[in-house]
Design brief:
- It contains 25 helices and 19 strands.
- The protein is globular and about 85 Å long.
- It is α/β, with parallel strands linked by helices.
- It has a seven-stranded mixed beta sheet, sandwiched between helices. A five-stranded parallel beta sheet has the order 2-3-4-6-5, with helices on both faces.
């Protein structure tokens, strides 16, 4: 069968193993072709091609439910569920999403961009099925990395206490760090242990022993122990853990042997209660470069398929924000052994891989466990360390209670560096870092800041580590502004003090973080129209520099705020509240992300769609203040409180 002819996964039914293997080769070819051209996740999908085909061979996807954890391992799933023709548009504006998306396909049963959610979602579907007396199958496919997440373990604990709820969990173990060797002996023992004859003998022998008159229905302790010992002979150590938690364990099996997986999945479907099938796969399978470098080829920008190397940039780029952060933290750690770096399985993405290589004893990776990372950092701070927790903005959302309860309330000196803050592009709504300004504003005792460039990031990092309470610094994705950097000797900033970049009498532009440069560009465009704008680099969200902002707002009378984040509860809202609280009742235009989800596209395309390019923002400002701009009408303190207008917000 040709992959291009597959529009429904049920078309796999009846295909021979040889035919399925041919489809697998076509999936890998198409996967590599598209990702090498436009970029995307590579290794995860290549590793689950055979797993996907074997699993779907045993399911009826018109009725059964499959929940893929995270979703970037589900590219093969997309290719056999009607998206082959559009797969070339992967992660592009208006194209196929990089993650599962319920609105994109009826076969995407649950959308997710964050790890460790699949078992909870699949269990919820199974319980709903049972409540409605329906009979479809529910499957969660989760990777060994995602299994480190507390939510996954909570779901396993719950499912294990529901012996009559049929649920299949497929553990895609592509690391081998928790897998015993895959071999004939373990396969044979599992097959024997779960075979009908052995199950029949075991159940009937146990029942016969219980019915002996002198035992009164009780199984002797010695026989219980013998039974458990016999079970452990046929179950690897990892499997014994899941069996103790209430699951029937099968595996480990070769994740690239379609026939073996089909047999195992069919046996799992016949087994009552929660079942875990342990499948050992090779991340990046079928592409030697991805197999050899499983971290580097987890995701890739466009690259040469023949050499495996990324296409060189047409012009030199400044270092990324993440790299500047990582290099600066290494220098700080070299001079201060109290400072440690913490990541939640994102060392390379956050720049902490540099610390891992330079000073491994001051580096901690907790796995996909953001809640644990935050509270562990709080414990370290209690004992005199200065932990720096580097987590993507979108992932720190998962540890909000810990930010408040364990760090904020106790006023502990923990620094949080929120990478990928703002618009991130092709990963779509699940990864946009548009909420951290809003969710950090309310956390007690936190100092919250954002740098205008890489040099200011260096100073903010020093400032936060020297501070006696919790701090958060947001940095965007991608390369920095290209400003000169210092190797060391960074001077801390005065907390709560912004910076006046340019002065003017017609408008006050107050910008935060990555929007400072666009605000300056906007001011330049306004200058061409005869509008003189003052520009403030706010630096701090909390505490806001009211000593700088309020008098200028009072004098100029028109305020525009700039932020690359949600307007609801965001930076502009903080400025507006401050103006209102101090009776500086002037019109305010807030520029940022409105109340909507930002879909997958390039960051530039998203910003244009949101009206956040300098030309668009200048046009909006002129439209909003056109009749009054340049009139010099500031705030008149002689007005009585009864005459004062409420702030005007657009």
């Amino acid at each position: 069968m040709q992959l291009s002819a597959l529009s429904h996964p049920n078309q796999l039914h009846g295909l021979s193993i040889t035919e399925l293997e041919a489809v697998a080769r076509q999936i890998r070819e198409r996967h590599l072709e598209v990702v090498s051209t436009s970029g995307g996740h590579l290794g995860p999908g290549l590793g689950v091609v055979e797993l996907t085909l074997a699993l779907y061979q045993t399911l009826d996807l018109d009725h059964d439910r499959v929940v893929w954890d995270v979703g970037h391992q589900a590219y093969p799933h997309k290719l056999i569920t009607g998206r082959y023709a559009d797969f070339h548009s992967l992660r592009q504006k208006g194209g196929v999403a990089g993650y599962l998306k319920r609105s994109e396909s009826r076969f995407d049963h649950f959308g997710a961009g964050h790890a460790s959610t699949s078992i909870s979602a699949a269990l919820g579907m199974a319980l709903a099925r049972d409540a409605r007396k329906e009979h479809f199958k529910c499957v969660a496919v989760i990777g060994d990395g995602a299994l480190t997440g507390g939510m996954a373990l909570e779901a396993i604990n719950h499912a294990g206490h529901l012996p009559r709820t049929n649920l299949l969990v497929v553990l895609n173990d592509n690391d081998m760090s928790i897998s015993p060797p895959v071999g004939a002996l373990s396969t044979h023992l599992n097959r024997m242990r779960l075979s009908k004859p052995v199950q029949f003998i075991q159940d009937n022998a146990e029942e016969a022993i219980r019915n002996l008159p002198f035992l009164h229905g009780e199984l002797p302790t010695e026989l219980k122990t013998l039974k458990e010992s016999m079970k452990r002979l046929a179950v690897p150590k990892l499997g014994a853990v899941f069996e103790e938690l209430g699951f029937t364990y099968m595996g480990p099996i070769d994740g690239h042997d379609i026939a073996a997986m089909v047999r195992t999945f069919e046996a799992a479907h016949r087994t009552e209660g929660p079942v875990l099938v342990h499948v050992a796969t090779t991340k990046g399978k079928g592409y030697p470069y991805a197999e050899a470098d499983q971290v580097g080829y987890h995701a890739q920008s466009a690259f040469d398929l023949t050499t495996g190397k990324a296409y060189p940039s047409s012009k030199p780029k400044p270092p990324s924000w993440s790299k500047v952060f990582g290099q600066t933290l290494v220098k700080i750690c070299e001079h201060d052994p109290r400072v440690v770096g913490i990541t939640a399985a994102m060392a390379t993405g956050t720049g902490l891989d540099l610390l891992e290589k330079a000073l491994p004893h001051q580096y901690f990776d907790v796995g996909i466990a953001e809640q644990h990372a935050v509270t562990m950092a709080a414990g370290m701070a209690c004992e005199g360390l200065r932990p720096v927790v580097a987590i993507y903005s979108t992932f720190l959302q998962r540890a909000y209670d810990q930010l408040i309860h364990d760090v904020g309330i106790q006023n502990l000196p923990v620094t949080f560096v929120l990478d990928r803050a703002g618009i991130v592009g092709a990963d779509g709504p699940t990864h946009q870092g548009q909420y951290d300004i809003s969710y950090l504003r309310a956390v007690p005792n936190f100092t919250v800041m954002a740098p205008k460039d890489e040099a200011e990031l260096q100073r903010m990092l020093v400032t936060s580590i020297a501070h006696s309470g919790p701090c958060a610094i947001r940095i965007p994705r991608g390369e920095g502004e290209g400003v000169p950097l210092m190797e060391e000797g960074w001077q801390p900033l005065q907390i709560g003090r912004g910076e006046l970049l340019t002065d003017g009498d017609d408008l006050l532009l107050v910008a935060y973080g990555a929007m400072v440069a666009p605000a300056m560009a906007t001011a330049g465009l306004l200058q061409e129209q005869g509008v003189r704008a003052a520009v403030i680099n706010a630096r701090f969200l909390r505490p806001l520099d009211e000593a700088l902002i309020l008098p200028m707002a009072r004098r100029i009378g028109r305020v525009v705020t700039f932020e690359e984040g949600a307007l609801a509860g965001g930076f502009g809202a903080a400025v507006l509240e401050s103006l209102n609280d101090h009776d500086v009742l002037v019109p305010v235009l807030r520029l940022g992300i409105p109340d909507l989800l930002v879909d997958h596209a390039s960051p530039d395309q998203s910003k244009e769609a949101l009206g956040l390019t300098p030309a668009q923002m200048a046009a909006r400002i002129l439209e909003r203040f056109g009749t009054d701009i340049g009139a010099g009408q500031g705030f008149d303190e002689r007005r009585t409180s009864d005459d004062r207008r409420a702030p005007v917000v657009a």
